[in-house]
UniProtKB/TrEMBL annotation:
Domain (Plasmid pRiA4b Orf3-like): residue spans on this chain: 8-77
Positions of transmembrane segments: none
Organism field: Sphingobium lactosutens DS20
PANTHER family (alphabetical): LEXA REPRESSOR-RELATED, TNPR PROTEIN
Protein name (record): Plasmid pRiA4b Orf3-like domain-containing protein
């Protein structure tokens, strides 16, 4: 669950609108860049500070950053697209219109 007070913003660019394809499920992912911040990291500003701390062992929040992010955290790693697709597929099934049964 995202911290509602963190005010994280996402940019969505609509490049074109096309007719729906019967062979695809919606929503779908077209592309993703970079990893999301972990939960409870202090929002975008806290995350940026923790990344800065990871790069400087003398930083006052170095230990906290290691505890929160881990020493193997790579903010430039590519997202797990198959995992995202699987989660979107589950949402598509959950949101799919259902036919009513006759009583």
């Amino acid at each position: 669950m995202q911290d509602l007070w963190a005010k994280i913003e996402h940019s969505v660019k609509i490049e074109r609108v096309s007719a729906a394809s019967p062979h695809l499920t919606y929503p779908l992912i077209l592309d993703a860049v970079g990893m999301r911040p972990p939960e409870d990291c202090g929002g975008p500003w806290g995350y940026a500070e923790k990344l800065e701390a990871l790069g400087d062992p003398q930083h006052e929040y170095d230990e906290e950053a290691l505890d929160t992010l881990g020493d193997d955290h790579d903010p430039n790693a590519q997202p797990d697209i198959p995992l995202i697709e699987a989660r979107l597929e589950a949402l598509a099934k959950k949101w799919a219109p259902r036919t009513r049964r006759k009583a």
